[in-house]
Amino acid sequence: MILLRRLLGDVLRRQRQRQGRTLREVSSSARVSLGYLSEVERGQKEASSELLSAICDALDVPMSEVMREVSDDLALAELSESAAVGSAAAPMRPLLGAVPSVPSGRPDERVTIKAPKAPAEAVDVVAA
Q1: Which pTM value belongs to this model?
Q2: Residue 6 CA to chain centroid, in angstroms?
Q3: Which of 30, 79, 92, 128 could make an S-S bridge to 58, C-beta 3.0–4.6 Å?
Q4: Residue 76 CB coordination number (10 Å)
Q5: What angle do CA 56, 33, 24 make, to 5 degrees?
Q6: What DSSP string describes 46-94?
């Protein structure tokens, strides 16, 4: 079973470690106890939205960026879990920031992608 609190804790820990900061520094800046922050990072405690906001502020990272990384990790965990069970994975939406491949490799080629909920509509995407 995939636990969201564990994925969130992993992302928060990675963000803190990328900055070379200690638990003590971040807990002091976020005004949360060192032990509680440690439990959140290890996925043992659920972070409230208020606590998550304080931690993100202390890390100077937008909460949307943290949640996007959690979402990407969740998608990978689901894919991995379904592969381990041996069942066919359901079609997944592309991860945020993913760029569709351009068949010819020309960066100016247009690719038409049909929206999944409204098949009659199409969107032109220019590969960057």
Answers
A1: 0.66
A2: 12
A3: 30
A4: 13
A5: 70
A6: PPPHHHHHHHHHHHT--HHHHHHHHHHHHHHHHHHHHHHHTPPPPP-PP
